[in-house]
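Data availability excerpt. The first of two example chains:
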Amino acid sequence: MNNRERFLKTMHFEKVDHPPFFMDSPWDDTWERWYREGYPKGTSLADYLKVETLEFGHVSIDTFLIPPFKPTVVEENDEYVISTDCYGAKLRKFKKHTTMPEWLEYGVKTDKDLVALIDRLEPQWEQRMPADWLERRLKLNENKNAVVCAGGGSYYGILRNLMGVEAVSVMLYDSPDAIRRWIEAYHRLIMQILEITFAETSVDYIWFGEDFAYKTSSLISPSMYRELIQPKHKIVTDFARARGVDIFFFDSDGNINQILPDLLDAGINLFYPVECAAGMDPLALRRKYGRKILMIGGLDKREIAKGKEAIKRELCTKVPPLIEQGGFIPRIDHSVSSDISLENFIYYFELLKEIYGEK
């Protein structure tokens, strides 16, 4: 059984020898710590841990602005770099520690600014399609071990990146027509891309990248989601289901409990990273939603940092019952933070292998 088969069977609650290993992602700071603690540079994490990790193949048609904003470096010193990104936002990234950037200014400030960008959502296929599209498509179709995903859109996520949470929140109330116009144009582009994708590529799941939530709640109200975005999500999921795809991966940090029933109603069913620090509990979610919900993540990074006793408690409480039921792939809930020592990470992963029945 290869990892693609393990992934698909796990997500359909079918019996597997064990779920696939979905490799964790250490921060840059974490790597630096691990190098000091003896990790051999130049060795992949999968090789170091002696496992075959889940491989993903991504359909690479550009779903963003054409042309994008041009990234530029505004200021740089020993402590940080201030730059603009492809969304037109100005941000400060610190060099000596890994953290979220500090957003200083956004490229879109008004409803007029947003509407002015709608023309950049036109197809313009010669720029959206990678030059080696044919070669990439053939490789995706030939690779039987990789799980292939196509983008279902980032309706809220792109708006947040263009203007920031505060401005999006205000505009949802003050200028809903501008938001609607943007979403309609963006949705047309997504559907055109999906038409091309399904005509030419075998797809295993659809990915939505929204980051809908913060620590305690969603960033958009359920009623606004139902009015503005849910109908588009539902069109995407219906389109894919009609073509044999029934796994819909929703990538959002934070606490999505408030909005999760509406996401399920939109046909979305696979949630990541199930962030424990934000009150997401994979055991509680399984009890509440049963087989309606699929999950990847759900292992509390704070517990992995505490040492062997906490790690054993975290894994042995959650992993055996959830993988026995299916529909769950354990993973640290998002990136591996630098408070996790190499010794603790090795212990965590070796225990996970033991629970899986792998040596």
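And the second chain:
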Amino acid sequence: MKPGITIINTARGAVMDEAALVNALDAGRVSSVGLDVYENEPEIHPGLLANPRVLLVPHMGTWTIETTVKMEEWAISNVRMALEEGRLRSIVPEQKDME
């Protein structure tokens, strides 16, 4: 990656190695960071907390009316599918038998 980049991660915390990210910030290879997911949530690397070039927010990436409506629609359709068809749209490991 180019020196001086800005990194934003709203996907999954495990995508980032926070220790390496802190090192890259300290070395100037990364100029700033924005995160709303964390590698070992709820813990956050102290080097991120202490750095003024880091913006940390608590899972605010989905705090829009449009996203909230879509999440509600998905949840309702998931319940409906479970009741009507005995399977789920969103499978988690504990529900593998409902595929």
